[in-house]
Amino acid sequence: MSPTPADFTDLLGRLTLEQKVQLLTGQDFWSTHPLPGIGLRSMVLSDGPSGVRGPVWDERDPSLNLPSATALSSSWDLAIAHRYGVVSALEARRKGVDVVLGPTINLHRSPLGGRHFEAFSEDPVLTAGLAAAYVAGVQELGVGATPKHYVANDFETDRFTADVVVSQRALHEVYLLAFEQAVTEAEAWLVMSAYNSINGATASENELLETPLNSEWGFDGVVVSDWTAVRSVESAKHSQDLAMPGPIGAWGDALVEAVRSGEVEEKAIDRKVLRLLALAARVGALEGFEKPAAVPEVDTVAFARSAAAEGSVLLLNSDELPWNASTLRRIAVIGHNARDARTQGGGSATVIPASVVSPLDGLRAALPDTEVTYSIGAVVQEGVAELPLSTMTNPETGEPGARTRFLAEDGSELFAEDRFSSALVYLGGNAPVGDTSVFEFRTTYTPGESGAVLLGFASVGRGRIYADGKLLREDTAVPVGADLGAALLSPPSISTPLDVIAGRPVDVRVELELQRSEGGLGNALSITVGVEPDRSDPQALIDEAVAAARAADVAVVVVGTNSKVESEGHDRTTLALPGHQDELVRAVAAANPRTVVVVNAGSPVLMPWRDEVAALLVTYFGGQEYGNALADVLLGVVEPGGRLPTTWPREESDVPVIDVTPRDGTVRYDEGVHIGYRAWLRAGTEPAFAFGHGLGYTTWSLSNLRASATSVTVTVHNTGRRSGKHVIQVYAERPESTVDRPIRWLAGFAVVRLEAGETSEITVPLHAHTFEYWDNTWTTEPGTFTLRVGSSVSDLPLSTELQVRAL
Ligand code: BGC
Fold first, then answer.
1. How many degrees, rounded to 5, is the angle at CA 153 between CA 152 and CA 154?
2. Strand, helix or coil at 90?
3. What positions does the domain PA14 occupy (predicted)?
4. Mind listing the pLDDT tens digit for each residue in 509-536?
């Protein structure tokens, strides 16, 4: 039995008001206050959700980098989501983390949403199932999970202030559904309140924190704020329990004062503290309570590889894949992302993997007897990219890496360290960022190729770039927009041309002036020192790739975005692929009919050339084992296991719900319950690829559908020549209804894996709210529903009718 808040009433009685209030704000960026007198240690909270970063953002303490949430959701597999949670908890325990700040379960309302890659789906039922499985997996090992961001945090523009105007019905049926299931089914120990407002009240002061979360779903955990989202004493009157980060915040002394003056009731404080103590007991942070001793043995790197393949969606295949390795003499690997693999999106979700397998690495390793050529084809990276460790020598130690120094106003050294990366984020940790006047980065850079590079840095503030002791540029990098978090994690670049010669070392020094600033991010710094790619002659890059493709048996073009394009802190401005990637694909496909395109992006992109290529595979941000997983899929070692969790459009103008920009501070969710495929169905527009679509390497037939009010049963036959995975999808319809319902909505799903020729009878549970709608409470409209079964929202060969009675 999990400890409950009521178990700690006696302990609470031993605390003064000051002690109680202190517990309710973090002691620093990532941890809570300890109280040794009652046997309470500090609890560490960490992002998440695709791996666990730990309390420092540092390549010397790397983390497993799992495939992005969009890849996980594409598996449609609750067992994989559960495993993903278990692996996250193992990482958390390895790193001394008590609470994982995930999963992100906001919805793919618009494909432009900056954190789309970090969330699961446009469908509430699919999101809810995955959320509950992930949470259960994490918590099984005594680590808290934090479904976030409660609620309607589905876009990034003006995210701190935007007010979402949304009907109660859409809230309950769509945006709250996954939170409901994560709480009622998986008993999440925390929920994170969002930055935005919902119907006029900011999330940390919103009644939704009490109803439905507590009063209807029975949540007895901790509502932690999004970082800096607690802005007032007022929020303490609401069911907002823990304010992060600390130690400075809106509560503290002001809250003690407010309790003393009677403005805030002490029992509101007590309720929060009891929940915090219960959480501490649950994660083993309170004396007398331990985390479970037994943990499963999991090869976490192997899991990252298989999860990436399970989440890869084969959209088109003209009998091209899988490739037979023994028949490939030469393969042309093309694309910026093929070499500089994008394994994760940007923002607080970032983790630092020990190593990454790019598509190029993965294919080279898998094809030892094939000649594998590489051409960049088109530049995708914007701004400076970090220097590969193999090109950096620390001038102090002579070892690979760099030396950083933190200098006081008088030039004296406050702190120095040796690093193995030129992309550095200080957010928490020991570096005295707040007291530093100048930050200095030094490395000896030995380029691999001769030519002109753009040397520089990405950060915020005034900086100086030196090469071999000579000042090349001094300038100020100014952030776009007012989002401090975005400026920190996706900063602007300043660079200067420099001619380099392969193998000849250059002493690189960058100085950055730091400004003292108060508040949560005052002690934070992010800087990347590196080079910008040469984009001066795009046609030459395409020509080179075309020549390579022409001379090869097959070509694989890896197109995509990166962590600057898809990031927390800003929404995308276009669905088009960055740079000249569309021209590149067209040219390569024209040169070699056996061209396979791989999309390395966390969210939908436009693919105007999709009918010109032999096969099309979406791999998302594939995590650290990305390249190995891709090779497995292309060579048929495993099947691509993914089905789209979100509709992919032909044209941006076709997307029925796309807007992410507040008007007069407000985003109106006027489409109600009609988002995603529901909106496409209502608009009657054909997308490029439908929700649920995805091919494997075998064929299937479905027959003999039977339905009850709680499940459907169907016979599934693998009619092909390979073993394979099928995702059975069940949709409900209510052709004649007095309620404004979607034309069709997901009611249930199940994964089935069968050998070639095998037949099995599969029962698919239906979601508990399938036949209900929200009208102040869950309500059933009795009568006839149609249930359709198949392999995507637009491929549903079987159907049956069901009479539903009033409850
Ligand atoms: C993000 C959260 C994250 C937190 C801590 C916020 O900016 O919205 O998702 O958990 O920072 O990094």
1. 90
2. helix
3. 397-546
4. 999 999 866 555 667 899 999 998 878 8
For residue 6, give Cα distances in angstroms to 35, 192, 271, 340: 19, 22, 9, 52
Spatial neighbors of 416 by CB under 8 A, at least 6 apart, are 403, 404, 405, 406
Considering only CA atoms, which of 418, 411, 408 is closest in space to residue 442? 418
d(CA 552, CA 166): 54
Atom 2 of ligand 1, residue of closest alpha carbon: 226
Alpha helices in 626-779 (DSSP H): 626-634, 677-683
Confidence of residue 275 (pLDDT cuts 50, 70, 90): very high
Q: What is the pTM of this model?
A: 0.97
For the CA of 569, the closest atom of ligand 1 is 7
- Where do we find the tokens 């995702």? 727
Q: What is the pLDDT of residues 136-173, one digit of tens each?
A: 999 999 999 999 999 999 999 999 999 999 999 999 99
Residue 205 pairs in a beta bridge with none
Please state whether beta strands 222-225 and 313-317 pair in parallel, antiparallel, or not at all (unpaired).
unpaired
Are the C-beta atoms of residues 196 and 203 closer than 8 Å to each other?
Answer: yes
Minimal-distance CA residue to ligand 1 atom 3: 348
CA 362, 366, 372, 377 dihedral sign is negative
Q: Give pLDDT tens digits for 69-93.
A: 999 999 999 999 999 999 999 999 9
Instruction: Note the pLDDT tens digit of each residue in 583-641.
Output: 999 999 999 999 999 999 999 999 999 999 999 999 999 999 999 999 999 999 999 99
Domains of the chain: 40-245 (3.20.20.300), 301-383+536-668 (3.40.50.1700), 385-532 (2.60.120.380), 698-804 (2.60.40.10)
Report whether 335 contacts 357 (CB < 8 A): no
Distance, CA 282 to ligand 1 centroid (Å)? 23
Question: Left (φ > 0), alpha (ψ -120 to 50) or beta: where does 481 sit?
Answer: left
pLDDT average, residue stretch 40-51: 96
Q: Residue written as tokens 């710094």?
A: 525
- Examine residue 212 and say whether the peptide bond preceding it is cis (omega within 30 degrees of 0): yes
Q: Which residues have C-beta within 8 Å of that of residue 225, sequence separation ≥ 6?
A: 192, 193, 204, 235, 240, 242, 243, 244
Q: Are 141 and 86 in contact (CB under 8 A)?
A: yes
Q: What is the largest CA-CA distance in the chain?
A: 81
The helix or strand, by DSSP H or E, that contains position 458, with its residue range, turns out to be strand 451-458
Which ligand 1 atom is nearest residue 194's CA? 8
Distance CA 405, CA 40 (A): 36
Ligand 1 near 226 CB (within 6 A): yes
* Residue 574 reports pLDDT greater than 60: yes
Instruction: Kindly report, residue by residue over 760-785, the tens digit of the pLDDT.
Output: 999 999 999 999 999 999 999 999 99
Asked if 226 is an active-site residue, the reply is: yes
Higher pLDDT, 706 or 48: 706
The residues, ordered by sequence, that sit 6+ positions from 216 with a Cβ below 8 Å of its Cβ are none
Q: Is the CB of 485 under 6 A from ligand 1?
A: yes
- What per-residue confidence (pLDDT) applies to 521? 64
Catalytic residue, candidates 226, 340, 361, 571: 226
Cis check: omega of the bond before 151, within 30 degrees of 0? yes
Residue spans of beta strands (DSSP E) within 228-358:
313-317, 330-334
Residue length of the chain: 807
Contact partners, residue 758, CB within 8 Å, separation at least 6: 717, 718, 723
Range 367-393 average pLDDT: 95
